[in-house]
Design a protein that fits this description.
Shape: globular
Strand order of the largest sheet: 3-2-4-1-5-6-7
Structural class: alpha/beta
Number of helices: 6
Number of domains: 2
Mean pLDDT: 89
Largest sheet: 7 strands, parallel
Low-confidence stretches: none
CATH architecture of the largest domain: 3-Layer(aba) Sandwich
Order of helices and strands: EHEHEHEEHEHEHEE
CATH class of the largest domain: Alpha Beta
CATH superfamily of the largest domain: P-loop containing nucleotide triphosphate hydrolases
Helix content: 25-40%
Distance between the termini: 43 Å
Strand content: 15-25%
CATH topology of the largest domain: Rossmann fold
Length: 233
């Protein structure tokens, strides 16, 4: 089975891209399954199950970052999809933590970026872009040709080896190259390992301490005038 992880900022068009991909995968007599990881509410699994008749699940991360939740539950998700007899598992993560990379080794990482979010977006999202295999730039019909070229340049500036696909996913434009990459991707292997290093986030804020000010906390900290430092054992 092959594992395909879709990440990207909210409202960027991830689900629309995935729906177009599923439609084309099914025409090739291949069996996909779909998991949506979100924070508080999602119904994409229900609409995709209804429209395409494929196995779907959703997982709510709650107070856990959805990209972290993705890493924690992904082995169970792969086992579930294999039991369904799936050829592909498509995972859509909410992607709210821009420091993180939800991708794992021996999978295909696809980041979806909305071109109308501003020309500097590729400079702001870090590993979600830089560790991906494919960057899908959506809503290209809503910006000028010059803006498209600048956006594409800045994607490649951040991730030099990435494959860039420009897409109007609503009408299925630019989806076929993505499908070809998906079909040619590697099979997932267990045990799985995260691609890249997790962000440094060990501190008392992470475990719920609410006091304001570095003097009240331990772990990895910083101040206005000092870069990251560590306090504690």
């Amino acid at each position: 089975m092959k594992l395909i992880i879709f990440a990207g900022p909210p409202t960027c068009g991830k689900t629309t891209v995935i729906r177009q991909v599923i439609k084309r995968i099914l025409t090739k007599n291949l069996k996909p399954s779909f998991i949506k990881i979100d924070v508080l509410f999602a119904d994409e699994d229900e609409t995709i199950a209804k429209d395409f008749g494929i196995p779907t699940r959703k997982i709510y991360s709650g107070e856990l970052c959805p990209d972290h939740c993705n890493v924690v539950v992904l082995d169970e998700a792969v086992e579930w999809a294999e039991k369904q007899g799936s050829d592909f598992l498509f995972v859509e993560t909410a992607g709210l933590c821009l420091r993180c990379s939800p991708y794992v080794e021996n999978s295909l990482g696809i980041v979806v970026l909305e071109s109308t979010s501003g020309m500097n977006l590729p400079r702001k999202i870090g590993p979600m872009l830089t560790l991906a295999d494919i960057a899908v730039i959506t809503k290209i019909d809503l910006i000028s040709q010059a803006e498209r070229e600048v956006f594409r340049y800045r994607v490649l500036e951040a991730a030099k080896e990435i494959t860039v696909v420009e897409s109007n996913a609503l009408y299925g434009i630019g989806i076929d190259p993505i499908v070809r990459k998906i079909i040619d991707s590697k099979e997932v292997e267990l045990p799985m390992f995260l691609r890249g290093n997790p962000p440094v986030g060990t501190c008392t804020i992470c475990v719920g301490k609410k006091e304001i000010g570095a003097k009240n906390h331990f772990g990895v900290l910083r101040t206005m005038d000092q870069d990251l430092f560590y306090v504690g054992e």
